[in-house]
Amino acid sequence: QVQLVESGGGLVQAGGSLRLSCATSGTIFSVDDMGWYRQVPGKQRELVATITSGGITNYAESVKGRFTISRDNAKNAVYLQMNSLIPEDTAVYYCNVRRYLFGTRDYWGQGIQVTVSS
User: Is residue 30 pLDDT above 90, yes or no?
Assistant: First the structure.
């Protein structure tokens, strides 16, 4: 079982920066992808960025060039550096571990609010 805890959210003005962190407990395997998703009320949860244990990253078009995902395999942690924030980035951000072992399974954190004021 994997448990995820996000931290680092909050309120920031447009143009500002925040860094989200996700700490995990339990075993993280090298086959696991880690990532960040976000959700606003009334909309589906959407991918923000993912990273493999080898450091291969994938970003949503809307955050490319502004957000950077990183991963510390020794600490089983994942981070999201968010720069040049815009009000449209306002959402609840969720940390995710996707395990590809005998099928696919997702683990989620409880979510953390990020609010960008204009």
Answer: no
The β-bridge partners of 49 are 36, 59
Q: What is the mean pLDDT of residues 3-10?
A: 97
Query: What pLDDT is stored for residue 101 in this prediction?
Result: 85
Give the whole-angstrom CA distance, residue 114 versus residue 90.
Answer: 5
Calculate mean pLDDT across residues 93-107: 94
The secondary structure of 52-116 as a DSSP string is -TT--EEE-GGGTTTEEEEEETTTTEEEEEE-S--GGG-EEEEEEEEEESSSEEEEE---EEEEE
Q: Contact 25/74 with Cβ under 8 angstroms? A: no
Q: What does pLDDT average to over the chain?
A: 96
**What are the residues whose beta carbons fall under 8 Å from the beta carbon of 31, sequence distance 6 or more?**
53, 99, 100, 101
What is the separation of C-alpha 25 from the centre of its chain, rounded to a whole number of angstroms? 16
